[in-house]
Amino acid sequence: KHLAPSLRIAHMTSQERRRLNLLCLHGHGGSAAKLCGQLDSTFLRDVARQDGGPLLEVTCRCVDAPFPEPSRRSDGRQWWRYDQGGRGDRPEDWAEMEVAATRIAEELDAPAEPYDGVLGFSQGAEMVHTIAVLAHRGDPRFSGPRAPKFGVSLSGAVNPGHFEAQGAGGPPEGCVGPRAGPGSSALGWPLLFVGDFATDGWYSTTRFEETLGLYADATRVEHAQQHAVPALGDEAVAAARRFFSRFAAGTS
Predict the structure, then answer these.
(1) I need a labelling partner for 54 at 20 to 30 A (CA). Which of 29, 66, 75, 112 fits?
(2) What is the pTM of this model?
(3) Which residues, 6+ apart, have CB-to-CB distance to 155 below 8 Å?
């Protein structure tokens, strides 16, 4: 487990400030330490910068995925293995998705102060969407007073395996049968969806759009930095800050 230092606005004053506590999930082959470094130097740095409004103080706690993935770096981890020898979109073993979901649920329940939201990048963002789908289904791991209030998806999409037969209750891929997944705008969990819709390189535009279509309360922020934890321009920062301000606790 890697606990990132809090990302805080420097030189706090008596001006009103808002505080958020985020659980952060790295991508496939990444690590908690790597993601927190990326967030501190790009996305959360940009969101936290002062713009004349309330100061935004964000605490980022990154955790490692349960399974090793050392093909690119010795400390690489993964939430589950992709099928087709790592080239597919679905889990090779659905049990690994369940192990990963339980690992996240345990972390959500661990701290004395509940997390406000969950942020994920790439495969970690797929786990953010997994939380939304499982909460919609009434999964007790992701409901109740300690459930996160919102999700943040950086360059990630819902995993289609949730709507298929492998423990999800739907028909196998390519077969006719009842759809087990949520319908259009069925997920009420607020979501900040950040991605390069044109040139992500891993997720298609269609997959991004289909994922967004599942949510009734989604804020869309686009960038042109491909599959990355992005730096944000002024317009994107303003949209992200408006989203976060809905959930940040005010202090003085």
Answers:
(1) 112
(2) 0.88
(3) 27, 121, 122, 125, 194, 195, 196, 200, 202, 203, 227, 228, 229
